[in-house]
Amino acid sequence: MFRPxxxxxxxxxxxxxxxxxxxxxxxxxxxxxxPHLAAQAWLDRLDEGQRARAxxxxxxxxxxxxxxxxxxxxxxxAGVAVGELDEAACAAASGLWAALASxxxxxxxxxxxxxDDVLAAGAAPNVFGxxxxxxxxxxxxxxxxxxxxxxxxxxxxxxxNATFRGDEAAHTPSFWGVEPTTFAVDGEPRAxxxxxxxxxxxxxNHLAAGDVAEARVDRPADGILRGAxxxxxxxxxxPDGLAASQLDDDGRTxxxxxxxxFLDRLPDEARAAxxxxxxxxxxxxxxAWSGDLADDSADAYYRVHGPAVWIEFSFxxxxxxxxxxxxxxxxxxxxxx
Length: 337
Fold this sequence. Notes:
This protein is α+β, with helices and mostly antiparallel strands. Helix content is 28%, strand content 21%.
């Protein structure tokens, strides 16, 4: 079992960084609003200056130039910081994200954001501007039922993109990372990417036990092959690793579990559509891994590559302000986008 140091988070303003965010992404359970109506409701709650920074043309380069770096390294991040939102705008943001992510996805995003407050508390001074308030929401195009438009939430260790065209929705690319990997909020433990870590390493360990050399792959030099700013990086052809059709029954079950934990972040309708697409291409979905599979590894890596899915999960070295243990980066893409 992975046993990182538990750090308790006490929310409060961190020196040299933006104020922590209100809890905008975890609304009470209720029926999800229609995305374009939820987006417009959020925009309507912003003041004139915020609205000018929140809305972009759909083709604006900012839509594809998202970054997972901390605030001080991305001084012109698109959109309005969550920490700027008043109570009404925060409530509207909750409605927007209820339309764009499942309860699991919203909780995961919220935990990742608040992990930055742990980093802020441990950094002296907070030169990178770690803060749950430094995550930005932006809308690209005009929210509508029939047109094409998009919404983006981006910040340190988190970049979520959702694009809508009529009844179709694409929730890629997305970046999910966290440091520290385990902490506590108001005494409640948080480990937002533990299931994703465990699912991939369970399959990697299963293959390692069978000495299946074909499943090994070289770890990308930057930890993630197709992360931020890497839209033009080609997908490996042919895919690395072993296809589902080459796995034994246990391996196939474990690969489905990897796909499921990432699908769980999507709202119901989007999840059903993606699950159908991944099921159709399952036999040609490949898994590959590299590195040391020990719990405290700082170089483990796994990848899933199928006709309609690309997942990378990477263990990264600790940074200043954390707990000294490795942390996680992951990215989800759709090669068909």
